Amino acid sequence: MKFKICERYKIWFGISSAIIIMGLIIATVSGLNFGIDFTGGTMMQFDMGREFNVEEIQAVLVPYELDADIIHAGSENHEVIIKTKVNLSNAERIEIFNAAKEAFGIDDSAFGQTEQFGPTIGDEIKDKALISILLASIGMLMYVTFRFEYKFGVSAIIALMHDVLIVIAIYSIFRIPVNSSVIAAILTIVGYSINDTIVVFDRLRENIKYMNKKSHFEVADISIKQTLRRSLNTSLTTLLVIGSLYVLGVESIKEFALPLLAGVLTGTYSSIFIASPVWANWKNHESKKHSYKAV
Amino acid sequence: MKTKNITLFIVVVLVVIAAVFTALNGIDAGNLKVDSISDSMKLGLDIEGGAYVVLEADTDETGEALAKTMNQTQEVIRRRVDAMGLTEPNIVREGSKRIRVELPGVSDAQDAIEAIGKTAQLQFVMYDGTVILTGEQVKNAELTFDPKTDKPAVALEFNGDGTEAFRLGTKEVAQLASPNNMMPIVLDDEIISAPRVDSQISGGTAIIVGEFTVDEASNLAALIRGGALPVDLVEVQTKAIGATLGINSLNTSVRAGLIGLLMVLVFMISYYRIPGLVASMALMLYIVTVLYTLIFMNATLTLPGVAGLVLSIGMAVDANVIIFERIKEEIRNGKTLRASVDSGFTKALRTIVDANVTTFIAAIVLYYFGLGPIKGFAITLMIGIVASMFTAVVVTKMLLRIFVGMNLTKNVKMYGAYGGEQR
Predict the structure, then answer these.
(1) Of the candidates B68, B416, B187, B252, which has an alpha carbon nearest to the alpha carbon of residue A230?
(2) Residue A3 contacts by C-beta under 8 Å, 6 or more apart in sequence?
(3) A31-47 pLDDT, tens digit each
(4) pTM score, whole prediction
(5) Which residue ranges form the domains of chain B, and what is each CATH number?
(6) How close does chain A come to B240, measured CA to CA in Å?
(7) Which residues of chain B make contact with A185, given a CB cutoff of 8 A?
(8) Alpha carbon of B324: minimum distance to chain A alpha carbons (Å)
(9) Do B300 and B309 meet the contact criterion of CB atoms below 8 Å apart?
(10) Do B110 and A97 lie within an 8 Å CB cutoff?
């Protein structure tokens, strides 16, 4: 079977666009499901020391009108996480914890953790995240332009944006809460995904030198094929470690590992199916213009 | 040649074993004493337990006035935190209106936060609660010794307004009959001291004498001095975590990391054979290097830091994978094993540098814009990138050359190359 990826770019671009557009539509219509660190709110975790059901906890929380999410946590599901978009003061948190202590016969040692976010913090994190992604992109674009040429740079950044958008789309479509760990993960993906793309482009840069009779699509396909093992193996080792973090890790680690899993997969995908096809198309388009002029 | 390489190989294996052993147990041999990782790593408060709170001043002040208020606020908080006797509290300004207070190891985080943020009102009052003066009119309070008895006492100093208010107050109180001839000092509705006033005191200074120990007198002075915050503070972000949960989180993450590592090692050795074994040894050295670098830099290991480290294990193999795939290609192109190793390395190096520099750029941005614990993640990522390049380029190369030199096998399959056009 002939290895043809770049010429079939319409399929890949189509799949990716569909996912991204679907994600964006859902995000615009019903908004992203932002976590409490974006909306403002409070999280409390304590150890019940036994199995429990959600209703028991809700009963204690009734007087506080929190409209809280109650989640089981810990290795034996003996711990409870309460998440609410109500921004509770320290005194209120102590009051609720005391109420829980009384109702369930637990003591201070049951305290796990608590987090509180004011309503303004979220916007700041979002702003910082946007600036970070922009700055990182500009920095990488400059480096790739300096080491390769700007068409490689722009194609790499397009693949990068693709990855960021796909991860956001997944969070939008599946209504997974977006919190600051997701932002950190997305920034990590930015670094990881470009790494994959650069490896393919590096080979492409090398191959162009002595394959000037082949079309840009063909050279790109050959380069992808030559680096395919490496792309797959590196993704696999990375997925092995993140996967084990996701399966075995605590709640906060899971929140970080999930977007990374998505990011590593889409990063590998985009380095093969997006970055090089974008570059090949661009070069192809350009050389067509040239030949037209020559006639 | 062969013997030399076998000796070298044994030396390297011993070095790897020694490094891993040191990391796990520490060594103590005469002059050479290296602590194990778990003994010397500084843990973040999300692991060790503790709390941080970001407080924002509720004020419309700007410019210099704001800066002054914030400096005073920071000072008051610093005193309140010092009174808790924690090992390494950290109080830093964030932006113009915010103060971040970090309290690692604090046992009752919720109470501590309450104690920091309270808008204490310090007042000097009369027996019936009439306010004579407030904390803002106190210029200073410090430990001193009663010149007559040499016993510990608290010296008070008032500002301009305070001097006059204190003079009038003492004049009035001194005329009252016992037990009303006292001027209680009230902090948040709690009487912290109730000295008797015998006569009018002018001149803006006074001392409180009594049966104080040195500690009691200096604590009282600190309370009077740092009693009141100049501005209301609003909690904008808080995190408090109990020590048990933190340590459990660390342990589960480390276990997850070890299982992940094991899977990576199994994959690398079964897929790449001899180079895979080499990469596994390099990976062990990589992990030890990163951990000791963190310790050397006195960096604090946070939970995201651990996640970053585990993630970097997966990524650190990348440089090796790039090299090995290149070597396999060279073998397929008909070069000898030795030549393949050398040219594979040279060709792979450029790729590795370019790929890692771009990731490094992202890590730098993450470090500058990351909030709190994310910075810890960015640091591990950066150290990881440098260390993985080092171990891949130096350690892997050296080991591969040794292996080729040992001449164990000419079978390139043992170098992961299958079905190539071996000529």
Answers:
(1) B416
(2) A221, A222, A224, A225
(3) 888 888 888 899 999 99
(4) 0.80
(5) 2-43+242-415 (1.20.1640.10), 50-106 (3.30.70.3400), 122-226 (3.30.1360.200)
(6) 5
(7) none
(8) 9
(9) no
(10) yes
